Amino acid sequence: MSISAIVTAAGRNSRMQKDQKENNLEIKNKLILPFNNSTVIENTIDNVLSLNVDECIVVVGHYKDEIMEAISKDYDNVKFVANNPVDVGLSVSLLNGLQNTGSKYVLCVTGDQPTVLPETLENIIQTLLNANDPDNTVSILRRRKTGLLDTAEGLGMPFAMNRENLISYLENENGNMNPILRKIFSNGFEFWGIEEKNELELLNINHYKDYEYLLKIKSQQSDYTDIKKL
Predict the structure, then answer these.
(1) Sign of the C-alpha dihedral, residues 9, 39, 51, 228?
(2) Confidence band (pLDDT; 50, 70, 90) for 218?
(3) Cα-based distances in Å from 214 to 70, 115, 211, 222, 227
(4) Residue 73 belongs to domain spanning
(5) Domains in the chain: how many in total?
(6) Quick check: is 227 in a domain?
(7) Measured on CA atoms in the order 143, 148, 152, 153, is the torsion positive or negative?
(8) 229 in a structural domain
(9) CATH number, domain at 76?
């Protein structure tokens, strides 16, 4: 079955920028901050490309030029698409990516998720593809429970589902993903929560303190795949 990955990298960076200003730091988009010998966004792309996906679509918007200039690697299987206009919500960025691929299923990841391991992303994909009815299933990184879920509260990305079904829920939306996921859940889709391999996979790099914490843990253990308690 065909499956593509959509990586969203089009956000305003407002919370990180506010923290950088308050701490007299150089203003940089969080996606191009150094991590693991490259950048946050490149690590996310590398993790996705290590999977057996047909292609990877990276959606850019705000800070497009800054992000594109910071990506030093030559990616053969990556297509960059730009939001126009740029001042849109995550759901619009995701829809833009979905409209630039024809795969039956999609893995949706945000660019600031470099710690979500390839093994976990692969588990998300395989859980979807092995479901009794993949077209009416959402496989997603858990936030509370694992296995068959009884709520979509608190859920976000990464997740995988049928592309056309997802498009139908994103059209005419312009906001965050959790309200949309709750709507999908309420319409009878089965949600399967995938357990993380370590707690860093649940870290959202929204504030500068999140980034500092990530670097601290990384410096203490070069291979953090076995971390369970932080």
Answers:
(1) negative
(2) confident
(3) 20, 9, 5, 12, 12
(4) 3-215
(5) 1
(6) no
(7) negative
(8) no
(9) 3.90.550.10
pLDDT in tens, 30-88: 999 999 889 999 999 999 999 989 999 999 999 999 999 988 888 988 999 999 999 99
Tens-digit pLDDT profile for residues 101-139:
999 999 999 999 999 999 999 999 999 999 999 999 999
Tokens of 193: 């929560």
Quick check: is 204 in a domain? yes
Q: Taking the model in full, what pTM does it have?
A: 0.94
Q: Is residue 230 part of a domain?
A: no
Lookup: tokens for 75: 């990616």
